[in-house]
Amino acid sequence: MRTEQEMLNLILDVAKNDKRIRAVYMSGSRTNPNAIKDIFQDYDIECVVEETKSFRKQKDWIDQFGERLYMQYPEENSYYENDVDNCYVWLIQFTDGNRLDLTVSTLSHALKNIEGDRLCKILLDKEKCLLDMPEATDMDYWVKKPTEHNFFDTCNDFWWCLNNVAKGLWREEIPYVMDMINYVVRPQLIRLMEWKIGFDTNFTVSIGK
Fold this sequence. Notes:
Helices cover 37% and strands 19% of the residues. It is an alpha+beta fold and 209 residues long.
């Protein structure tokens, strides 16, 4: 597996030698000072470009990042909304174990992302077109304190729908039971656990994914 430095050097070399790329920044767990490092961390890389069309048409452009095991084109998926003229993504799993979530986006699109995510870190800015970024922090992802109304609504929904689980079990309607657990009961339980952690830490942590 290529090291983090090897991957970043490769990404920057590609960007520096491609006149279409104006800037590069990284986000996600690799810029989070509180994230535990492990071999499964991917590289969330966004290249700021004038236009995305030439990258979309040049199918072999991504070959220079390494040998691929498999990949995904989110913008080509019929289940996802897209704006390919302003943003295009390749999700790449390499044979050496590294994963790269690579995006090309226009400046206006990139600036919106940066404004809403304080985990962004500039790797390259050829034209000084990106905003000055403070030190990366995961504060945007910290558990938010609930209102009293939020808390009681969540508890009520949890207990009410747990009754539906019992009803489904009695009827032996297992698909219904699993849907009720996975899409209603479990999310409410997770929310309550988040708040418990938040109160224990004065709402100064992220629980991660």
